[in-house]
């Protein structure tokens, strides 16, 4: 069956493929997480577009279900300016890597899509991590709930409370969402928590 879709998407991850292409993983509201081959994804023109956290307009085409779709990306909003800031960069890296690792392909999770858009906006707009850390904690808990692993919505507003709640979530995240694939993904979280602890 041919695939042809166009939708706003959050770029979650991009893996080099061949000399200049990338395999991109993107989250859409209606179709869930999808993967696509981006020709020239590492070239000068597309490199600023293929950044995890960026909002893009995605066009995905495939002649059959067995074929990796071709993806065309148009930049809608860039997270590039925040990647030179250690804390926002670590938060964007962790949220996108966690989502790319945990979600199955082509299952719609509209709540997660809108929560991730809101989280990325908060990371880029709040004057400091105190403004977005509670949203990051809520997103981790929502991801566990949406994938069927329960858990209540944590109530924490102060940074010390957020860090304590995030430490409690480490075990379920590791056990349920990152069981076989934790490696670098969990390392991104540890790096982020180490930076947040310095603020307390």
TrEMBL record:
Q: Name one GO cellular component term.
A: bacterial nucleoid
Q: Which Pfam families match?
A: RecO_C (PF02565), RecO_N (PF11967)
State the source organism's domain of life.
Bacteria
Keyword set, alphabetical order: DNA damage, DNA recombination, DNA repair
Q: Which SUPFAM superfamilies match?
A: Nucleic acid-binding proteins
Mind listing the GO biological process terms from this record? Answer: DNA recombination; double-strand break repair
- What is this protein's record name? DNA repair protein RecO
User: Which intervals hold domain DNA replication/recombination mediator RecO N-terminal?
Assistant: 4-77
Query: What is stated as this protein's family in its record?
Result: Belongs to the RecO family.
InterPro entries per the record?
DNA_rep/recomb_RecO_N, NA-bd_OB-fold, RecO, RecO_C
């Amino acid at each position: 069956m041919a695939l042809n879709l166009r939708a706003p998407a959050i770029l979650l991850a991009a893996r080099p493929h061949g000399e200049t292409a990338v395999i991109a993983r993107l989250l859409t509201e209606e179709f869930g997480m999808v993967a696509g081959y981006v020709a020239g994804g590492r070239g000068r023109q597309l490199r600023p577009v293929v950044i995890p956290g960026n909002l893009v307009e995605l066009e995905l085409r495939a002649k059959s279900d067995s074929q990796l779709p071709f993806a065309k990306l148009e930049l809608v909003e860039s997270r590039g300016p925040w990647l030179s800031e250690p804390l926002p960069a670590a938060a964007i890296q962790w949220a996108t890597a966690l989502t790319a690792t945990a979600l199955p392909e082509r299952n719609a999770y509209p709540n997660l899509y809108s929560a991730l858009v809101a989280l990325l906006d908060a990371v880029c707009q709040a004057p400091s991590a105190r403004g977005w850390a509670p949203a990051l904690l809520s997103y981790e808990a929502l991801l566990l709930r949406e994938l069927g692993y329960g858990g209540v919505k944590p109530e924490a507003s102060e940074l010390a409370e957020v860090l304590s709640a995030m430490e409690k979530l480490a075990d379920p995240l590791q056990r349920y969402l990152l069981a076989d694939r934790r490696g670098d993904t969990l390392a991104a979280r540890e790096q982020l928590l180490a930076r947040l602890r310095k603020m307390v």
